[in-house]
Design goal:
By secondary structure, the chain is mainly alpha-helical. It contains two helices and no strands. The chain has a domain of 40 residues.
Length: 70
């Protein structure tokens, strides 16, 4: 499933941090992977803190299998 692109502007120092985190490894592959990881973590925290309500991915056409939970 292709996602529409999201435009994101960051300061050069933030880009350097993302590159550092990408090289370290466990935060994601490439700058986009690191950004994705931090955004998803932030959304999970907002749900846990009841800042926003949890939504069902199936309502957006997502399909899940056991491998997605690993």
């Amino acid at each position: 499933m292709a996602n529409p692109p999201v435009t994101l502007r960051l300061r050069p120092v933030m880009i350097a941090y993302l590159e550092d985190l990408s090289r370290i490894g466990p935060y994601g592959k490439g700058k986009a992977g690191v950004i994705r990881r931090f955004v998803e973590t932030g959304v999970r925290l907002a749900i846990e803190r009841s800042v926003i309500q949890k939504r069902d991915g199936a309502d957006f056409g997502e399909e899940f299998n056991e491998e997605d939970d690993a």
